[in-house]
Amino acid sequence: MDISIFVDKKMIPTTENLIESLTGTYELWKDLTGYVHLKYPSAVDEWKYSGDKYGWSFRIKDKKRVILYLLPRDKFFITAFVFGQKATDAVMNSQISDKIKSELESARVYAEGRGIRLDILNETILNDLRTLIDIKISH
Fold first, then answer.
1. Where are the domains of the chain?
2. Please, which contacts does 101-110 make with residues 24 or more away whose CB atoms are closer than 8 Å?
3. pTM (2 decimals)?
4. CATH code for the structural domain at 15-138
5. pLDDT average, residue stretch 43-68
6. What percentage of the chain exceeds 70 in pLDDT?
């Protein structure tokens, strides 16, 4: 089951919790959140408890939508995006890796768009993630 490492509804995760739990990937978490705020300074951070089945997740939002979801796991985290059709087209026409394009293309289409989740274990896809953030913000 894909569940957060933070499951206590009464305890919103702290920076210290993240540092301890994400270990080496915490710097990547900081890099991505910092990048979103650099590109979209009015973005708002929010921890959300999605129920006992999923635990706590972190999201960075504008007024109407979530720009980036960050899902903490044991020693790594998952990023999640939802792209509408225009953003999906932009991703498909970008220099992003074929693996990510393939995952997005095969994702089920919902009213709000296509969703993808990417495990962040190291910095290898950091540039692709920045491009995805840029596309999400601009569409």
1. 15-138
2. 110/82
3. 0.93
4. 3.90.1150
5. 93
6. 99
